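Re: your question about Dihydrodipicolinate synthase family protein

S., sorry for the slow reply, the queue was backed up all week. Below is exactly what I fed in.
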Amino acid sequence: MISPINHAAGVWPVVLTPFRPDGKIDFPAYRKLLEYYIAEGVAGLFAVCLSSELYQLTPSERLELAREAVAVSGGRVPVVACGYLGNTEAEKLQSVFDMAALGMDAVVIPVCLLVPQEAGDEALFAAFETLLAQTAEIRLGIYECPLPYHRLIPPQLLGRMAHLAGERLAFLKDTCCDPAAIAGKLRACAGTSLRLYNANLTTCLESLKLGAAGYSGTSANFYPGLLAELCRCFRDDPERARELQQFFNLVQRHVEFKYPRSAKHFLNRCGVPMDDFCRVGCDRLSAEQLLQQEALRNYIERFAIREKSAENH
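Result:
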Protein backbone atom coordinates (compact mmCIF):
# COMPACT_ATOMS: atom_id res chain seq x y z
CA MET A 1 0.00 0.00 0.00
CA ILE A 2 1.25 3.50 -0.77
CA SER A 3 0.71 6.45 1.52
CA PRO A 4 -2.36 8.67 0.97
CA ILE A 5 -1.76 11.58 -1.38
CA ASN A 6 -1.45 15.04 0.09
CA HIS A 7 -4.25 17.02 -1.57
CA ALA A 8 -1.82 19.79 -2.36
CA ALA A 9 -3.49 22.59 -4.26
CA GLY A 10 -1.30 24.48 -6.69
CA VAL A 11 1.08 23.69 -9.55
CA TRP A 12 2.12 20.16 -10.48
CA PRO A 13 4.73 20.46 -13.26
CA VAL A 14 4.83 17.78 -15.92
CA VAL A 15 8.41 16.72 -15.31
CA LEU A 16 10.73 16.68 -18.33
CA THR A 17 13.38 14.01 -18.87
CA PRO A 18 16.84 15.48 -19.45
CA PHE A 19 18.93 13.44 -21.86
CA ARG A 20 22.62 13.60 -22.61
CA PRO A 21 23.63 14.28 -26.23
CA ASP A 22 24.11 10.51 -26.66
CA GLY A 23 20.44 9.95 -25.79
CA LYS A 24 20.93 8.45 -22.33
CA ILE A 25 19.13 9.91 -19.31
CA ASP A 26 21.09 12.65 -17.55
CA PHE A 27 20.28 11.89 -13.91
CA PRO A 28 22.39 14.70 -12.38
CA ALA A 29 20.46 17.18 -14.55
CA TYR A 30 17.20 15.46 -13.61
CA ARG A 31 17.89 15.91 -9.90
CA LYS A 32 18.69 19.59 -10.42
CA LEU A 33 15.50 20.02 -12.45
CA LEU A 34 13.43 18.54 -9.64
CA GLU A 35 15.09 20.86 -7.13
CA TYR A 36 14.33 23.79 -9.43
CA TYR A 37 10.62 22.96 -9.48
CA ILE A 38 10.48 22.61 -5.70
CA ALA A 39 12.35 25.88 -5.17
CA GLU A 40 9.79 27.60 -7.39
CA GLY A 41 7.02 26.65 -4.98
CA VAL A 42 5.24 23.83 -6.79
CA ALA A 43 2.66 21.78 -4.90
CA GLY A 44 3.61 18.39 -6.34
CA LEU A 45 5.48 16.63 -9.14
CA PHE A 46 3.90 14.71 -12.02
CA ALA A 47 6.82 12.55 -13.11
CA VAL A 48 6.89 10.00 -15.93
CA CYS A 49 4.17 11.63 -18.02
CA LEU A 50 3.83 12.62 -21.67
CA SER A 51 6.18 15.59 -21.24
CA SER A 52 8.71 13.10 -19.83
CA GLU A 53 8.61 11.43 -23.29
CA LEU A 54 6.69 8.61 -21.66
CA TYR A 55 6.40 6.31 -24.65
CA GLN A 56 10.08 6.70 -25.58
CA LEU A 57 11.26 5.43 -22.18
CA THR A 58 11.95 1.81 -21.33
CA PRO A 59 10.08 0.23 -18.38
CA SER A 60 13.24 0.33 -16.27
CA GLU A 61 13.87 3.99 -17.17
CA ARG A 62 10.36 4.94 -16.07
CA LEU A 63 10.96 3.33 -12.70
CA GLU A 64 14.39 4.95 -12.34
CA LEU A 65 12.97 8.39 -13.02
CA ALA A 66 10.11 7.87 -10.57
CA ARG A 67 12.50 6.56 -7.91
CA GLU A 68 14.69 9.64 -8.28
CA ALA A 69 11.70 11.98 -8.05
CA VAL A 70 10.61 10.42 -4.77
CA ALA A 71 14.17 10.50 -3.41
CA VAL A 72 14.78 14.14 -4.36
CA SER A 73 11.42 15.27 -3.02
CA GLY A 74 12.10 13.55 0.29
CA GLY A 75 8.52 14.18 1.33
CA ARG A 76 8.66 17.92 0.66
CA VAL A 77 6.02 17.60 -2.07
CA PRO A 78 3.93 14.61 -3.21
CA VAL A 79 4.93 12.73 -6.35
CA VAL A 80 2.73 10.93 -8.87
CA ALA A 81 3.79 9.02 -11.98
CA CYS A 82 2.20 7.05 -14.80
CA GLY A 83 1.69 3.32 -14.70
CA TYR A 84 -0.34 0.79 -16.65
CA LEU A 85 2.09 0.59 -19.56
CA GLY A 86 3.16 -2.50 -21.46
CA ASN A 87 2.35 -4.76 -24.37
CA THR A 88 0.07 -7.13 -22.46
CA GLU A 89 -2.49 -6.75 -19.69
CA ALA A 90 -0.14 -8.58 -17.33
CA GLU A 91 2.69 -6.14 -18.12
CA LYS A 92 0.40 -3.15 -17.68
CA LEU A 93 -0.81 -4.36 -14.31
CA GLN A 94 2.71 -5.18 -13.14
CA SER A 95 3.82 -1.66 -14.06
CA VAL A 96 1.22 -0.29 -11.64
CA PHE A 97 2.53 -2.47 -8.82
CA ASP A 98 6.15 -1.63 -9.66
CA MET A 99 5.46 2.09 -9.68
CA ALA A 100 3.47 1.95 -6.44
CA ALA A 101 6.30 0.08 -4.71
CA LEU A 102 8.57 3.12 -5.17
CA GLY A 103 6.43 5.20 -2.80
CA MET A 104 4.31 7.11 -5.28
CA ASP A 105 1.55 9.18 -3.74
CA ALA A 106 -0.57 7.94 -6.63
CA VAL A 107 -0.04 5.85 -9.75
CA VAL A 108 -1.62 7.75 -12.64
CA ILE A 109 -3.41 5.78 -15.35
CA PRO A 110 -3.56 7.23 -18.89
CA VAL A 111 -7.25 6.76 -19.60
CA CYS A 112 -6.57 6.07 -23.30
CA LEU A 113 -4.69 2.89 -22.31
CA LEU A 114 -7.61 1.40 -20.39
CA VAL A 115 -9.79 0.67 -23.42
CA PRO A 116 -9.56 0.90 -27.24
CA GLN A 117 -10.63 4.12 -28.91
CA GLU A 118 -13.88 2.59 -30.18
CA ALA A 119 -14.97 1.40 -26.72
CA GLY A 120 -17.92 3.14 -25.10
CA ASP A 121 -18.25 4.72 -21.69
CA GLU A 122 -19.62 1.58 -20.05
CA ALA A 123 -16.61 -0.39 -21.26
CA LEU A 124 -14.34 2.26 -19.76
CA PHE A 125 -16.19 2.12 -16.44
CA ALA A 126 -15.94 -1.68 -16.41
CA ALA A 127 -12.20 -1.53 -17.15
CA PHE A 128 -11.68 0.95 -14.33
CA GLU A 129 -13.73 -1.19 -11.94
CA THR A 130 -11.59 -4.20 -12.85
CA LEU A 131 -8.40 -2.21 -12.34
CA LEU A 132 -9.54 -1.17 -8.87
CA ALA A 133 -10.19 -4.78 -7.95
CA GLN A 134 -6.81 -5.89 -9.30
CA THR A 135 -4.69 -3.25 -7.59
CA ALA A 136 -5.61 -3.81 -3.93
CA GLU A 137 -5.21 -0.56 -1.96
CA ILE A 138 -2.99 1.32 -4.40
CA ARG A 139 -3.90 5.01 -4.71
CA LEU A 140 -4.63 5.92 -8.34
CA GLY A 141 -4.88 8.97 -10.57
CA ILE A 142 -6.36 9.47 -14.03
CA TYR A 143 -4.73 11.29 -16.95
CA GLU A 144 -6.66 12.37 -20.04
CA CYS A 145 -3.49 11.76 -22.05
CA PRO A 146 -3.65 12.89 -25.69
CA LEU A 147 -1.66 9.89 -26.99
CA PRO A 148 -2.07 7.31 -28.43
CA TYR A 149 -5.55 8.80 -28.74
CA HIS A 150 -7.27 11.59 -26.86
CA ARG A 151 -10.09 10.35 -24.67
CA LEU A 152 -12.00 12.70 -22.40
CA ILE A 153 -14.12 11.43 -19.52
CA PRO A 154 -17.66 12.83 -19.44
CA PRO A 155 -18.63 14.42 -16.09
CA GLN A 156 -21.26 11.81 -15.20
CA LEU A 157 -18.88 8.94 -15.91
CA LEU A 158 -16.07 10.57 -13.95
CA GLY A 159 -18.41 11.03 -11.00
CA ARG A 160 -19.31 7.34 -11.07
CA MET A 161 -15.62 6.41 -11.15
CA ALA A 162 -14.76 8.75 -8.28
CA HIS A 163 -17.60 7.55 -6.07
CA LEU A 164 -16.77 3.93 -6.84
CA ALA A 165 -13.09 4.38 -5.98
CA GLY A 166 -13.63 6.39 -2.80
CA GLU A 167 -10.31 7.52 -1.31
CA ARG A 168 -8.36 5.47 -3.83
CA LEU A 169 -8.83 7.95 -6.70
CA ALA A 170 -7.10 11.20 -5.85
CA PHE A 171 -5.67 12.91 -8.95
CA LEU A 172 -7.08 13.92 -12.33
CA LYS A 173 -5.08 15.68 -15.02
CA ASP A 174 -7.89 17.22 -17.05
CA THR A 175 -7.26 18.07 -20.71
CA CYS A 176 -10.74 19.03 -21.93
CA CYS A 177 -9.93 22.80 -22.13
CA ASP A 178 -13.63 23.51 -21.49
CA PRO A 179 -14.73 25.38 -18.33
CA ALA A 180 -18.30 24.09 -18.64
CA ALA A 181 -17.08 20.50 -18.74
CA ILE A 182 -14.71 21.16 -15.84
CA ALA A 183 -17.59 22.59 -13.81
CA GLY A 184 -19.63 19.48 -14.58
CA LYS A 185 -16.79 17.21 -13.50
CA LEU A 186 -16.31 19.09 -10.25
CA ARG A 187 -20.03 18.84 -9.46
CA ALA A 188 -20.10 15.15 -10.29
CA CYS A 189 -17.10 14.44 -8.03
CA ALA A 190 -18.18 16.62 -5.10
CA GLY A 191 -17.63 14.87 -1.79
CA THR A 192 -15.01 12.47 -3.16
CA SER A 193 -11.22 12.45 -2.78
CA LEU A 194 -10.63 13.26 -6.46
CA ARG A 195 -8.85 16.56 -7.14
CA LEU A 196 -8.84 18.09 -10.62
CA TYR A 197 -5.70 19.71 -12.05
CA ASN A 198 -6.27 21.62 -15.28
CA ALA A 199 -3.72 21.13 -18.07
CA ASN A 200 -5.04 24.07 -20.09
CA LEU A 201 -3.46 27.42 -19.34
CA THR A 202 -6.05 29.66 -20.99
CA THR A 203 -8.79 28.38 -18.69
CA CYS A 204 -6.59 28.09 -15.61
CA LEU A 205 -7.95 31.01 -13.59
CA GLU A 206 -11.55 30.21 -14.47
CA SER A 207 -11.07 26.59 -13.43
CA LEU A 208 -9.54 27.64 -10.10
CA LYS A 209 -12.61 29.78 -9.42
CA LEU A 210 -14.80 26.78 -10.21
CA GLY A 211 -12.96 24.65 -7.65
CA ALA A 212 -10.09 23.00 -9.53
CA ALA A 213 -7.17 22.13 -7.27
CA GLY A 214 -4.55 23.65 -9.54
CA TYR A 215 -2.61 23.49 -12.79
CA SER A 216 -0.60 20.66 -14.34
CA GLY A 217 0.59 21.48 -17.83
CA THR A 218 3.46 22.40 -20.09
CA SER A 219 3.72 26.04 -19.01
CA ALA A 220 4.99 24.91 -15.61
CA ASN A 221 8.25 24.18 -17.42
CA PHE A 222 8.64 27.87 -18.20
CA TYR A 223 7.31 29.87 -15.23
CA PRO A 224 6.25 27.56 -12.38
CA GLY A 225 6.71 30.31 -9.80
CA LEU A 226 4.25 32.65 -11.49
CA LEU A 227 1.73 29.85 -11.88
CA ALA A 228 2.12 28.98 -8.20
CA GLU A 229 1.46 32.64 -7.41
CA LEU A 230 -1.77 32.55 -9.43
CA CYS A 231 -2.94 29.49 -7.50
CA ARG A 232 -2.23 31.27 -4.21
CA CYS A 233 -3.70 34.69 -4.97
CA PHE A 234 -6.77 34.08 -7.12
CA ARG A 235 -9.20 34.37 -4.18
CA ASP A 236 -7.64 37.18 -2.15
CA ASP A 237 -6.26 39.34 -4.97
CA PRO A 238 -8.48 38.90 -8.04
CA GLU A 239 -6.94 41.86 -9.89
CA ARG A 240 -3.46 40.42 -9.62
CA ALA A 241 -4.77 37.01 -10.65
CA ARG A 242 -6.40 38.57 -13.70
CA GLU A 243 -3.11 40.25 -14.71
CA LEU A 244 -1.22 36.99 -14.31
CA GLN A 245 -3.75 35.14 -16.47
CA GLN A 246 -3.55 37.81 -19.17
CA PHE A 247 0.24 37.55 -19.12
CA PHE A 248 0.06 33.77 -19.50
CA ASN A 249 -2.33 34.12 -22.43
CA LEU A 250 0.05 36.50 -24.18
CA VAL A 251 3.09 34.21 -23.98
CA GLN A 252 1.36 30.83 -24.37
CA ARG A 253 2.09 30.39 -28.09
CA HIS A 254 5.81 30.71 -27.40
CA VAL A 255 5.55 27.99 -24.76
CA GLU A 256 3.86 25.55 -27.14
CA PHE A 257 6.40 26.04 -29.93
CA LYS A 258 8.70 23.02 -30.53
CA TYR A 259 7.91 21.60 -27.11
CA PRO A 260 9.56 19.84 -25.26
CA ARG A 261 12.88 20.81 -26.84
CA SER A 262 12.08 24.48 -26.35
CA ALA A 263 11.39 23.90 -22.65
CA LYS A 264 14.69 22.09 -22.16
CA HIS A 265 16.60 24.93 -23.79
CA PHE A 266 14.65 27.49 -21.80
CA LEU A 267 15.37 25.74 -18.49
CA ASN A 268 19.04 25.52 -19.38
CA ARG A 269 19.06 29.31 -19.76
CA CYS A 270 17.33 29.52 -16.36
CA GLY A 271 20.23 27.68 -14.70
CA VAL A 272 19.21 24.03 -14.96
CA PRO A 273 22.18 22.39 -16.73
CA MET A 274 20.42 20.20 -19.28
CA ASP A 275 20.85 19.47 -22.97
CA ASP A 276 17.91 20.02 -25.33
CA PHE A 277 18.12 16.49 -26.76
CA CYS A 278 14.71 14.81 -27.16
CA ARG A 279 13.81 11.26 -28.09
CA VAL A 280 10.54 12.45 -29.57
CA GLY A 281 10.87 13.95 -33.02
CA CYS A 282 11.42 17.66 -32.55
CA ASP A 283 13.60 19.98 -34.64
CA ARG A 284 16.21 22.16 -33.03
CA LEU A 285 15.44 25.84 -32.62
CA SER A 286 16.86 28.10 -35.30
CA ALA A 287 19.07 31.08 -34.47
CA GLU A 288 16.07 33.38 -34.88
CA GLN A 289 13.93 31.20 -32.63
CA LEU A 290 16.65 31.12 -29.97
CA LEU A 291 16.66 34.92 -29.94
CA GLN A 292 12.89 34.94 -29.59
CA GLN A 293 13.07 32.52 -26.69
CA GLU A 294 15.72 34.62 -24.97
CA ALA A 295 13.43 37.62 -25.29
CA LEU A 296 10.64 35.52 -23.76
CA ARG A 297 12.87 34.56 -20.82
CA ASN A 298 13.81 38.18 -20.18
CA TYR A 299 10.15 39.22 -20.42
CA ILE A 300 9.12 36.56 -17.90
CA GLU A 301 11.90 37.58 -15.52
CA ARG A 302 10.91 41.24 -15.70
CA PHE A 303 7.26 40.40 -15.12
CA ALA A 304 8.17 38.23 -12.12
CA ILE A 305 10.30 41.03 -10.64
CA ARG A 306 7.49 43.53 -11.15
CA GLU A 307 5.01 41.20 -9.47
CA LYS A 308 7.31 40.67 -6.48
CA SER A 309 7.83 44.41 -6.17
CA ALA A 310 4.06 44.98 -6.20
CA GLU A 311 3.62 42.32 -3.53
CA ASN A 312 6.24 43.91 -1.26
CA HIS A 313 4.44 47.25 -1.44
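Residues 287-312 form the longest helix (26 residues). The domain at 10-312 is CATH 3.20.20.70 (TIM Barrel).

Happy to talk it through on Thursday.
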